[in-house]
What we know:
16-stranded antiparallel barrel, mainly beta
Amino acid sequence: MNKKLLAVAVAGLFVGGTVQAATIYKNDNGDNIKVYGGAEVGGTIVSDTDKTPMGPDTTYVDQSFATIGLKGQTGDFYAKFEIDAEREHWLPDNHLRLVIDKVMVGYNFTDNHAMEFGRTDTAYDKVDAFGDVTNELGLGISEAGDQDNTIRYIGKFGKVKMSVSHSLEGWDGDTKDGEPVKYSYITDSLYGAVTNGFIGYYGDAFTVIAGAEVGDETEIYSLHAEANFGNVMLGGLVFDETKNFNGGADKNEFGVNLGGKYALSEQLSLLASINYADVDGDTDSSIYGVIGTEYMYAKNLKLAAEVAIGDVLEGEDKMDSGALAFVKAYYWF
């Protein structure tokens, strides 16, 4: 849950070609500067305010988010500078704050191979939600996200794509009894040095990806897949995730997210998923389902709504039954 779909969509501006960022400068030799960005407005509605995972006595959680950035290209070198406007935390008094999300430089060795360095996405961050057909409420992986001092390789060999990154230092926050204190850090993650990556086969109708992450405070292994059959897309991910912050006890989660999406038209789709999680320390495993719809008003504007029913509320030693509703509009350029 709490995925940043907009960040994935904006990243696709430079690889998918479906939406063009605005070019504000272009030289005859191809050197250029482009501006890109977007906004997502909406949030989550909780059925029981006494057991919300979003904070005490919270019925509606505003999860609006915006980003704007610049990408420059000079010969084979390129650079990005990106600023996010994000909620300070998911409590009722949350405030928007500005965070420098990316400051990085990259070099294209060839059309299919590049290196990047700086404050940027780790390799795993590009595919951690692959196979999840939902926009927000499906079970997901908590990987390192963006990190400082990150060096990343990006490669393509025919239909095989891969990427690996190593981060020397993360944005550390506070911990209590070995557990991270929520919202005590102002960026995506609470990690020290971390290495992660993925390798995947991207076919015309079927894609399968294997990902992994290893660090002093994290260890994740996952398998992701998507298959297209006309108007039907099936997807899923399976993962084993262990966290250990600042010498605390290991906390392991095994999760499965399987779902599908049916296109009623070129713009309107229905989606559904079933999610299973087994977490160390919980007395029972949790199971819940998600149903939803999404409407592509334009190639850069999407409206989404979802409902999750089952074990989605925070209990004392396990997830309790309840419901979450999610609605959001996404716009990017």
